[in-house]
Write a structure and sequence with these properties.
The chain is of the alpha+beta class. The protein is built from 10 helices and 17 strands. Strand 14 and strand 15 form a beta hairpin.
Length: 412
């Protein structure tokens, strides 16, 4: 989510190790230059058209998205889906979109076809009266392009991220002393390699007046880990000590790769693999705050922010992301802004409290990316804002399938 998102992928972006419990971080990055492929074999296209066959039991077939209409006392999210479609359509009108699709590796997936597909799908969502009616129309009018996944057979790993809410202060105090920084005005002229995290904030996060960033502080936090997590997430909603609220979003970052703190904690025997979840890592640092100085600097990248005045989190394509209707993928491979369908298992609240896993079909829009989201076999699902979204994101980790939906060429 380049919030350009990078919203918090709950695994704290730090864990990222246990496929059943991690949540991958969403920190946005500038895509690296392509690595030369010395193999004589061309890389396979990331998507391939598939025949979805007939559908004898609609609720068990691709395209059955009951969440649009709700039911059983739950409100549907049709308006949220329509808003997300409109956000993608707005992106597709930009020069950025034109450039992105000029070199897309699958010739039949063009900007015009993606745009027409969204317009038609929007009409179907508005006019359909039930999941079955929408499903039938989509299966009749659209081609399903399946991601080849991580194994060439379509296996995709799903994680999730969310936008958290933190308490912060506009002024430094003895309690609120860990800052976020705005983008330096001369950042484009910084020499590479960029300064590392430890050079900019110090080992303990309190370099202060000695930091080359002094004077660029925006907000202060009482907990160093809170500020660090916002670097991972790329955005956050803030409750300020003066009673007001605001938000911050991604403005830029130094050029260093992702480092998983969870993996380092496991490697050093600090955590067992099954405990390297978001809650597990936070709990560890709450018990051992002295270890923050050792582990947080391992991720050398440093992220800068801008105040977004309560705006919703935005994805890497520059539009807001929508709870349970936006995904992040590898934008060097997947079509930005396009309509997609995910099929996988995700946690939902259950009666009496707690969460339970449900297998779902979900129409989504591909609107974000992240430094840990690489290959055709990775999808990060935006859960929304707040503690429940965070709880759900923190235990999301399943395998499933990803499809992109494009109008049949015969339909115009």
């Amino acid at each position: 989510m380049k919030k350009t998102l990078a919203l918090l992928s709950l695994s704290l972006g730090i864990a990222l190790i246990n496929p059943l419990w991690s949540v991958i971080a969403q920190v946005p990055t500038i895509p690296p230059l392509p690595i030369p492929n010395n193999s004589t074999e061309p890389l396979p296209p990331p998507l391939e058209a598939v025949d979805v066959g007939t559908c004898k039991s609609p609720s068990r077939c691709l395209g059955w998205d009951e969440q649009i209409w709700g039911g059983k006392g739950k409100q549907g999210d049709k308006q949220a889906l329509l808003a997300s479609i409109d956000n993608s359509l707005r992106y597709l009108q930009t020069d950025k979109a034109v450039l992105a699709y000029q070199n897309y590796p699958i010739p039949e997936i063009t900007l015009d076809r993606v745009r027409r597909s969204l317009i038609r799908f929007r009409q179907l969502v508005v006019n359909s009266k039930s999941p079955a009616q929408l499903q039938a129309a989509v299966r009749r009018e659209f081609v399903f392009y399946k991601s080849i996944g991580s194994d060439g057979k379509g296996t995709v790993k799903f994680t999730a991220y969310y936008e958290p809410v933190y308490t912060a202060s506009r002024t430094q105090t003895s309690v609120y002393k860990y800052p976020l920084y705005q983008l330096p005005p001369n950042f484009d002229q910084w020499a590479k390699p960029h300064p590392k995290r430890i050079d900019l904030e110090g080992k303990n996060g309190l370099l202060g007046e000695k930091s080359p960033l002094r004077g660029l502080e925006m907000f202060w936090f009482r907990n160093r880990l809170d500020a660090y997590l916002i670097h991972i997430q790329g955005s956050a909603q803030l409750k300020l000590t003066d009673g007001t609220t605001t938000s911050v979003g991604f403005a830029g970052g130094t050029d260093y790769p992702w480092t998983s703190i969870g993996k380092e904690l496991i490697k050093n025997g600090k955590l067992k693999r099954e405990n390297a979840t978001m809650p597990g890592i936070i709990s560890y640092f709450n018990r051992h705050p002295q270890d923050l100085n050792e582990y947080l600097p391992l991720w050398e990248r440093f992220v800068f922010f801008k105040e977004t005045n309560g705006e919703s989190a935005s994805g890497s394509i520059g539009v807001p992301v929508t709870a349970e209707r936006s995904i992040a993928t590898d934008k060097s491979l997947m079509p930005p802004g396009a309509l997609a369908l995910i099929y996988g298992s995700f946690p939902y609240p259950k009666k009496g409290g707690g969460l339970e896993s449900r297998q779902v079909n979900r129409f989504v829009l591909d609107q974000d990316t992240g430094s840990a989201i690489k290959s055709p076999g990775r999808v990060d699902y935006f859960m929304g804002t707040g503690s429940l979204a965070g709880s759900r994101a923190g235990i999301t980790g399943s395998t499933g399938n990803l499809y992109y939906l494009l109008l049949k060429e015969s339909i115009r």
